Amino acid sequence: MNINIFGSTGNIGTKTLLIIKNNFPFIKVNLLLANKNYKKLLTQVKLFKPKYVCLNDNTKLPLLKKKLVNYRTKIILSCDINEYLYKSKTELTILSISGYNSLNYLEAILFNTNNLGLVSKECIVSAGHLLKKFSKKNNTKIFPLDSEHYSLNYLFSNKNFQYNNVYLTASGGPFLTYNLKSLEKVTFKQAVKHPKWKMGYKNSIDSSTLANKCLELVEAHYLFDIPYEKLKIIIHPEAVIHSIVDCKNLTSIMNYFYPDMFIPIYNFLNSKNNIDNEYLNKKFEFNQTNQLNFYKVDKNKFPLFNVFDQIDKNSKIDVIKFNCSNEIAVNLFKFNKIKYNQIHQFIDNSLSLDFNNKVNSINDIVEFQQYFKEIVLQKNEIF
User: Fold this and answer.
1) Residue 5, H or E segment
2) CATH number of domain containing 93
3) How far apart are CA 333 and CA 341, in angstroms?
4) Coil, strand, or helix at residue 115?
5) Alpha carbon of 372 to those of 238, 280, 358, 365, 368: distances in Å?
6) What order do you get walking across the sheet with 74-75 strand by strand?
7) 141 and 163 in a common domain
8) CA distances from 32 to 42, 114, 182, 276, 327 (A)
9) Is the pLDDT confidence value at 160 over 90?
């Protein structure tokens, strides 16, 4: 059994490789793709000896080539990755590239792999209307690894029930108890410090603004065919219950587990579905907590959720615009171009721009996103 990992040097990629090393030595690493962290990629090559590696940052390629002289691992240029994928087959793939750049590989990955562990939100959000089409065509099984969708996937695959609503839980991020005045002075360093999860900067900031939950609603809509009007968000600071299905028989079903991405990844890789005793400490026990809290979303404290609530979510263009403008805003905040409490304003301004572009293919979407980014940055120079 072999595996390709897209985003191998990020948190998910690193954790996946550690789980393989400690638990599944029979899984052979075939391809590792990283963005620009060539030093960490080199360490992974030494440990796992993949057949191929790819680095998106071409400026670091000479350094990588020099270090790999004595290894059998071959380098594939990022511009040649899709061609390689279309000419080969892989049993397992993890797609954990943050941002809408993950779209560049999506169609080729679905052709190449039998089982896709999907973490990248943005590619589902922007191309969810194409995802099932490609996966069905290539007979590829999709396993969502985000905790909420992993949870729903488990519930819906084991139960056949009628429901009124489906709730995705949100921890509320690091600023749940902040007042509005305090949010004006929030720094990048504060925003990336999530109270429950260890994530990259993009996902951490998205969690603090609730942008991640907005994107996850779209994911759930596409992955499980849930109508938007039945999808809800509820704040749950303890982050142990990941989804709740409100059934028509007056009962509700909750799925809970310890907030650690080890659990979804381990179960994706674990084809035998047996858990080693040494990992029983990963199981959440209710006597470990004194209380579980649930709150409605305060749209004053999370104004971005209000922005999302007002868009036409059945409009593919509007959803893509939200996704792209959020990613742009997060990076502007990272580089001190806008303040934290301007993120939702920037996105709201960007959504007011009208476009009639077609988004009927991956190429359509990629081209539109690039065009949209250029226009948005021009129009928002005020920031």
Assistant:
1) strand 2-6
2) 3.40.50.720
3) 10
4) strand
5) 37, 47, 13, 10, 6
6) 74-75, 52-55, 28-34, 2-6, 90-95, 113-118, 141-144
7) no
8) 10, 17, 42, 27, 24
9) no
For residue 253, give every residue at least 6 positions away whose Cβ sits within 8 Å of its Cβ, in sequence order, or none.
155, 159, 161, 244, 245, 247
* Beta pairing partners, 246: 165, 252
Residue at a domain's end among 272, 287, 309 = 309
pLDDT category of residue 4 using cuts at 50, 70 and 90? very high
Other CB atoms closer than 10 Å to residue 286's CB: what's the count? Answer: 8
Decide which of 114, 145, 176 is a domain's last residue: 145
Contact indicator for 322, 219 with CB cutoff of 8 Å: no
Tell me, what amino acid is at 244?
A: I
Tokens of residue 348, six digits: 């709201």
Three-class SS state of 140:
coil
Q: Does the structure show a pLDDT above 70 at 237?
A: yes
**End-to-end Cα spacing for the chain:** 50
pLDDT of 328 strictly over 70 = yes
Rg (CA), the chain: 21
Please list the residues that pair with 231 across neighbouring strands.
166
Residue with tokens 């691992």: 73
- Residue among 147, 144, 102, 145 at smallest CA distance from 127: 102
Name the token pair of 346: 């920037």
Q: What is the pLDDT of residue 309?
A: 93
Here the CATH number for the domain that contains residue 330 is 1.10.1740.10
Q: Are residues 158 and 285 in the same domain?
A: yes
Q: For the chain, what is the total number of helices (H) and then of strands (E)?
A: 16, 11
Predicted model pTM: 0.89
Q: Where are the alpha helices (DSSP H) in the chain?
A: 11-23, 38-48, 61-67, 81-86, 103-112, 121-138, 147-158, 180-183, 188-191, 201-209, 211-224, 262-269, 303-309, 316-334, 343-351, 362-379
What is the chain's percent helix, strand, coil content, to nearest 5? 50, 15, 35
d(CA 13, CA 93): 11
Residue 332 clears pLDDT 80, i.e. is over it: yes
Residues 6 or more apart in contact with residue 182 via CB below 8 angstroms: 175
Q: Report which DSSP code applies to 341.
A: G
